Amino acid sequence: MLTTIISFGVILALGLTIFCTIKWWNLPLTGVTPVPLFTFIAILFTSGLDVGLIMFPLAFDFPLYADTATEPAYGFTNPLALEFGFWGFLIWTFYFLTTFYFCAIEPRVKFFEIPAIKLLNNIVIITTCAFTGALFLIYMPYYIAEVGDGETILPVFYLICFLVILIAAFSSTDLKFVRVLSVSSTLLFLALIAYMWLNAGMGLGEFASTASNLGGYFANIHKFIIPLTDYHEFYLFWWFAWSIMIGQFVSRFVGGLKTWQLLASLLVFPSIPLGLWFSVLYYYHLNGIGTAGFPNWAMTIVGILFVINSFDSLIRLYTDNLNFTTERFGTVSYVVANAIGLFVLTLLFQSQWLQIQWVGTIVIGIYLLALGYMFFVKRRHLHGLDGNANIPAE
Length: 394
Fold this sequence. Notes:
The protein is built from 17 helices and two strands. Helix content is 71%, strand content 2%.
């Protein structure tokens, strides 16, 4: 059942992406707080990804994808192509679709202002935020292998998790923080790629040889549309669970891109650093190069910054939606309430009774409800959508 649901969801999202791009090819899109393209991509990149990008490839993914005897479904291409397919290029169309919607369509139809939909959307945001915190806590012994036995969640890990949530709650109090945090995190990630490259002793020829494995993704891109395995299914649901809230958040920063430019930007720009990063890590995997010591700490620090970025965007989004703002309650009350509330939820979800597949299924349901609402209730509000037409009165 879950495989059918996510397959339908992915095909629906891709179909809607094609439709919107063709129909509104040159529609200019501008958010309420437009920023330059680099800043926009930095905000998108750091908000839409988390520490798993940093730590999963070497620790879990590459060994899993290489073991085709255990999982024959991965045998059609190489581990680097699989990793890129799980994180890059085509699945960024989910974020394009929702960013386009909140820039161009939501101001006209106001679907997410319907009280029941607003409540459901905020439940999705808060639960996904807590689920992300729980995953961060559960896997922290693997991320910070130098502390503890690599398996047990020690008290210091609870403290780190709480501090991460606390910092994110504070950074969400002012929009200027998200720009600084996102751009600095992106630059640090690029610096991390360069450091890991130099630390491995890679030459340009060795990098080119390793990176050429990415071609296995583009040659088999059609195979990544529906789930290859349960693990791939988990990733697809995870992307769907994030899609609406990331689109809702980053749409405010779009700075006058046309529809086709927004799609091209989301497909290409995030995929470049992802391809570089995975290629460097794949070289480590192929050559058995260890990361103990400073490399591991460097990856951990950048990964934690990604988590802070993700929490920041989600906290900012649901507090705006619920009108739980610093202007209304004060900075101290805002920060403390968010930090304690999310940390408690993180501890409750640590048992993993909340499954991201359930959240992703709800999001696919919201997609369908939004489509029905636009088609049957607000269709006339989309007539003349060319960037200049007035929004019809109610």
